[in-house]
Amino acid sequence: MNTPHQAYQRNSVQTASPAALIFMLYDGAIRFTKAGIEGIKSRKYDVANTNLKKAQSIVHELIASLNFDYPISKNLAQVYEYLLHQLIQANMKKDANHAEEVLAHLEGLRDTWKQVAGKTGAPTELASIGR
Fold this sequence. Notes:
With 131 residues, the protein is an all-alpha fold. It has helices at 4-15, 18-41, 45-64, 72-93, 96-120, 123-127.
């Protein structure tokens, strides 16, 4: 059974612009990475594992969303692959430092996307890099 909140979330995703979807992915990856860091620091390794794996899934989605017609997409793919590696290391070693590095990169990337979207005034063009 779907709660009203779940229905709202599903509708938000289905009606969002491509740029808004990219921002949602970044926000989710950031949220789950933070939760993974907290899980590691509080020695709740099951919580850390669950959240770091969710962050990894979102980074996989970011990779899948790339449009390789744009040269920057290759660079973004390499960055995302590095972030995946760091998330895996954080989870395997239960080392928050790896996840904190990922968090810093994700926040920087999200902020850059927002700045570029604001300057171009055309978030749909920006999102075409991320399909």
